[in-house]
Structure formats: structure tokens, C-alpha cells
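Query form — protein C-terminal membrane anchored cell surface protein

QUESTION: What is the three-dimensional structure of this chain?
INPUT:
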Amino acid sequence: MKLQKFLIGLTLFLGSCFGLQATGSTVYAADGPDYVLSPVSANKAQSVGNGYYVIRTENDRVQQIKVNILNKRSTTLKLSLSVNTGYTQDSGVYAWDSAKIPNDSSLKYKLRDYVQPKTMTVSIPPKSTKEVGFTLNAPASYSGVLMGGITSVPDGGKETGVNGNTALKIKYAYGLPIFLKMDNVRAVPNMSANSARGGLYASKTAVLANIENNKPALLANATMKLSVTRRGEKNVLHTANATGLMIAPNSNFTYPISWGGQRLEAGDYTLHGTGSTGGQSWKFTRNFTISAAEADQLNQEAGFKPDYTWLWITIAILVLIILGLLIYWLGRRSNKKKNSANEEEE
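ANSWER: The C-alpha cells for C-terminal membrane anchored cell surface protein are given below.
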């Protein structure tokens, strides 16, 4: 399933408030070169027609999550499947490709914790299909949306190229998103800034803004505008804009504001941000400070040579002071000699 198709379907999914139904007999799938993953509806509470699971449930209800695997190979396919909790990548896109996800203080319920088994290894004979399943036990007390997905990785990965004499083996993965919705609950997302700091992005100086959605709802197709000023000033130093953001429930991500190839300067700053989607909008600010030591270290790591301007200025000031004192001393000495000569003549 292509990313564009997934994002379009996901937006429609949110717009209808989890009311999607499979249309006709078409079921989209995660289609790779060697195999295909297709979601299978286990009951009437599950919709799978757009290539992902939309599961309505009640608290503490048990149901199956089924997936069909088609092996295109002429040899047996050994596949590792895992169910992971959704998180937000630093690009601002929802993902479910890792069991270890960034920590968020608002994330109290993780989809992976309510699924058994969390991982499994499956062997599919050549040119055949196999259906497997996971058991989902919904939380006993929860309101909102749990998000994640099934990730698949073929055993051994895929040999993709050669670098010198070394073969590079990269594991490619395909997956199916899961949206678990508690019945009769509509959660509303949020956008705010946890923090901001000086940092590096792609080895270039930047300000890194940590953006959070602390609500149990997907923040879909969102637009965000960020800017940085000196604290207490209105002049905007640098900006960053983002569109099409897909921010997972109860998650955060770090978004860069490029410093335009310039040095970071020590000082007090303010991050200003706005966000919007589907008639909702947010406005937020966050003060932060870049110390002289942080600025020096980041600038050096970005390839800037150490800035000794302050040292030369200090040296120049000291030289001027010394010259001034020397001139003053020489002047006084000259005056004393003149006064002594005048006294002797008298």
C-alpha cells in the first residue's frame, strides 16, 4: 500500500469519525516484492476495507486480529510479525515500526501491551497463503483511540547492494495499521510545545522544537507554523512550516527550525507556534535559553571554526587601557620634570 493512499484513506477515516465500512469486496493490502499482507475482518466490529484495521470495542472485550499472508516466492517464506504501539517520527508522520518508541508522559495505554502474542514467526509454503491471528484484550478502563500496527520482516532481510567488497543486507518491512476505538467515545487531539533547544539537524545548526499531542486521538492532516524570536522581541529570526502532519495519540516528536547555515548565538529565546486541522486550531509559546557553552559546542560540531571575536575585543580594550595608562604616566612624568626645572631656576 502506497503512503499516499494510506494518508488519504486515513484522513477520510478520521473525517467519518471511525465510521468507515469496507466498500464492495475490495481490500487493500501491504504489497511487497515477495509477499502480501491483507487484513481480515474477524467480526462485525472490524472494518478492513482500506488496508488497515478499524476496530470498535468496549472496555475489557477480547477479539482476534487476523491477517492473511500471500507468499509470492517459489521457496518457503519465513516471516517475523510483531504488533507495535504507534508513535510519531520526527518528520511528523505516524509510524508503528518499532517495539521501542519515544517516551511520552501522557501515554498510559500502549496497544502492544494488550495484544498476545506480541511477536510471532510464521512459515508460508511457496506460492500459497496462510492466515494467522493475534488476540486483543481491550483495556478495562480507557476512553479514546489506541493506535499501532502489525509489522512484518522476512527472515534474513534482503540483499540490496554491494559497497566495495561488503554486501549490504537491509531488512525491508511492510505493515498494517491498527486503530482501536472505544465505542461511543470521540477524543479530541491537541498540539502544544514541550520544549525547545539549540541543536543540530542534518549536521547543521537549528532550534529543535518538541511538539506533543497529549490526547488519545490522532491529529491528522495538520498544518504547523513555528518561529523563533529573541525573548521579549518581535523580530522573527527563523521559521519552519509543515503540512500534512499525522501525529499519533499521546506522542511527541522533535521538529527542526533551520538556522540558515548561521552560527547559534547564546541568549534567551522564545518559540512561537500555531497548528490547525479540521476547524481546530492551537497557539503556543515556549521560552528557552542557549548558553555560551552550548552555542560554542554546537557551532564547532556544525563545522564552524571557534569564534575568537570576543577575545580580540578584550585584548584590544586591554591594549587601549594600557596605552592610556602609559600616556598618562608619561605625561605626569614630563610635567614633574618641568616643575622641577622651574623650581631650580627660581
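ADDITIONAL NOTE: Helices lie at 3-15, 292-301, 309-345.
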